[in-house]
Write a structure and sequence with these properties.
The complex is a heterodimer of chains A (399) and B (220). By secondary structure, chain A is α+β, with helices and mostly antiparallel strands. Chain A has twelve helices and 13 strands. The chains are: A alpha+beta (399), B alpha/beta (220).
């Protein structure tokens, strides 16, 4: 026999009240935990794919679109830029390395990117099967693409113009799969990489003037750059935007802008979640005050048996703490169960990975917050229980 | 402390003197002086409203003393802090109330264990079971108190009062709501269980049937 046992049995005595309180606490906790996990994974996913890329250049247009298309491949290209101009910029003394990208074509909605071997190197993605492309119309495909469409080394496929799955197919030039990348959780998983020349050849045959230029006036879609020092960030974007026909965008700035946009939604959801958690705490407060009336005689009884005021206080607080712990555990189970289901879909769509089996530090803080709220909501009922006039309660019930 | 040493006090388990108590906005109740021998029996009678329960609550430390003093086991209750009073009551006094009510979320035996725990700081299940056996309700030990009959409830409330092995058992109207047969049975139980354990019995009641069972009677 101890105070904890009595507290625990008191909680069980009101199953409906307890269930209602737990549901509110658990839902609030679950919502907050999902928000914590998703926003952190999104953040990580986006930042992971920056990979030291200091600047992207492409055709003039929206800088956010340039970043979303050139780095994350989730938006349409802004247009093309002349290869000669891009190479001039790549030779700038402040530029350490550059990767040229030609994209716009796709295979069943997955983007085909003409580039150099440096691109997968930047992402530290190795080949799991086969090898990297060497000649035109050889392709090394991302792990996810290979898995999704059952592509294997030796298979052939045709590219389609544009990025829609139903777009016009270039059926005269089949690509051959020569290798498959290892899964990396980066943007490479969702791409089919090939030699830049493949893209030029493909569109030269088509004869569209914009894309089939003479060798001197070749075009690429975008170029990613790494600087020798961060000082480049101060001077190069302005140089590109003012002195060339190209546009420069800084991924760190654009990603922050994007998160500011997301942020409004996250903040709104977070407020909803906190309101639910607070309602759960208020529910503890109200149901404790209510049951205090019914329990006053029992509390007077245990005082008459010799229970100290602080023991009564502790008993009430323990009840709230137990509800808090149960609510938190249920909420986390709910959230992580949901995340487990969600991570399958979200992973491939946004290139983020959610580890449903680990807690983030914010979720641990959330535990403290919930316990704190529960204790806070129990303080007033506990003080009332302590201040009770034992003699009066015992007398009023005997007459 | 000096008074505690005096020879008169040591022979008495309970002594009260000059007790007066006033509830807010009411005239002060003047309460008679009491005394009780170790293992003795004392009946306090009086009409309802005469202050019997107030007196009982004063001598058991449930009410703080305003005027006068109570000495229980040679210790003055007047100077004790609230928690000292609570501890003292739990350790030395067993209380029986008119209505036998319990902690409803606890099993019968756990109600006895709870009284042991709050009274002495630890509980002893075997001892609790022996008490239930002595009062003839051991078969109900694992049930809940809602399932007890009226008679069984009275027995359990006596078991609970004895749980922390108190020197004094104080009962507030233990028989008033019972018929003659049950009133006699409850009195008999209280009386025999207290004397077999060497505990004093102090009963507060307006029940006339109890009058001739006590030598030591104080009327209010």
């Amino acid at each position: 026999m101890n105070i904890f046992k009595i507290s625990w049995l008191n909680i069980l005595r009101k199953p409906l009240n307890t269930a209602l309180t737990l549901i509110m606490l658990a839902l609030g906790v679950a919502l907050v935990a999902v928000l914590i996990q998703v926003s952190a994974s999104l953040d990580e996913g986006f930042r992971k794919n920056i990979r030291g890329i200091d600047m992207a250049v492409g055709a003039k247009g929206s800088p956010l679109q340039l970043i979303l298309s050139a780095i994350y491949h989730i938006d349409h290209p802004t247009g093309n830029i002349p290869l000669t101009e891009a190479r001039e910029l790549a030779a700038h003394p402040m530029v350490k390395e550059a990767v040229e990208l030609s994209y716009g074509d796709s295979y069943k909605g997955r983007r085909i990117v003409g580039t150099s071997h440096r691109y997968p190197e930047w992402y530290e993605v190795g080949v799991k099967q086969g090898r990297l492309w060497e000649k035109t119309f050889e392709a090394t495909v991302g792990a996810e693409v290979a898995q999704e469409f059952g592509l294997e080394v030796g298979d052939t496929f045709y590219s389609a113009h544009g990025s829609d799955a139903e777009a016009e197919v270039h059926d005269d030039h089949p690509f051959t799969v020569v290798g498959i990348f290892e899964p990396s959780g980066t943007v490479i998983d969702r791409l089919l990489l090939t030699a830049q020349e493949s893209m030029w050849d493909l569109h030269a045959d088509h004869g569209t003037p914009a894309e089939a230029d003479s060798l001197d006036e070749k075009q690429i879609t975008a170029m990613l750059l790494r600087f020798k020092s961060k000082m480049g960030i101060l001077t190069l974007p302005r140089y590109v935007n003012q002195q060339t026909s190209m546009q420069a965008a800084l991924p760190s700035i654009e990603v922050n802008r994007l998160f500011d946009l997301f942020g409004i939604g996250f903040t709104a959801l977070r407020i909803v979640a906190i309101v639910i958690v607070v309602l759960g705490a208020i529910s503890i407060f109200v149901s404790m005050l209510n049951t205090l009336k019914e329990r006053s005689y029992e509390i007077a009884l245990i005082r008459s048996m010799g229970a100290l005021r602080r023991q009564v206080f502790t008993m009430v607080i323990i009840e709230a703490l137990v509800l808090g712990v149960l609510g938190y555990v249920l909420g986390i189970i709910l959230a992580h169960g949901g995340l487990l289901l969600l991570s399958e879909g979200a992973g491939s769509r946004f290139g983020i990975s959610i580890d449903a089996f680990s807690l983030r530090p914010e979720e641990i803080w959330l535990f403290g917050l919930i316990l704190g709220l529960c204790v806070l909501s129990a303080v007033v009922p506990a003080i009332r229980a302590v201040r009770m006039d034992v003699s009066a309660v015992l007398t009023s019930h005997t007459q | 402390m000096e008074k505690k040493q005096s020879p008169v006090d040591e022979n008495k388990i309970l002594q009260s003197s000059g007790l007066k108590y006033s509830y807010p906005g009411q005239k002060a109740l003047e309460l008679p002086d009491l005394s009780c021998e170790p293992a003795g029996k004392l009946l306090i009678t009086g009409q309802s409203g005469s202050g019997k329960t107030t007196l009982l609550h004063l001598i058991s430390g449930l009410l703080r003393i305003q005027q006068g003093d109570v000495k229980l086991l040679g210790e003055s209750l007047k100077g004790m802090s609230q928690s000292a009073l609570d501890r003292f009551r739990g350790r030395h006094i067993g209380l029986v109330f008119q209505q036998a009510r319990f902690i409803s979320s606890l099993r019968v035996i756990d109600n006895v264990c709870a009284a042991q725990y709050f009274g002495t700081g630890k509980s002893d299940r075997q001892e609790a079971m022996r008490l239930l056996e002595a009062l003839g309700i051991q078969s109900k030990a694992q049930g809940y108190t809602q399932g007890l009959s009226g008679g069984e409830r009275q027995r359990l409330s006596i078991a609970r009062a004895l749980a922390s092995k108190p020197e004094v058992v104080m009962a507030d109207e233990p028989t008033s709501s019972l018929d003659d047969v049950h009133a006699e049975a409850v009195y008999h139980l209280l009386s025999t269980e207290c004397s077999s354990r060497g505990a004093s019995l102090i009963v507060v009641s307006h029940d006339q049937r109890l009058k001739d069972k006590f030598q030591n009677v104080v009327s209010l």
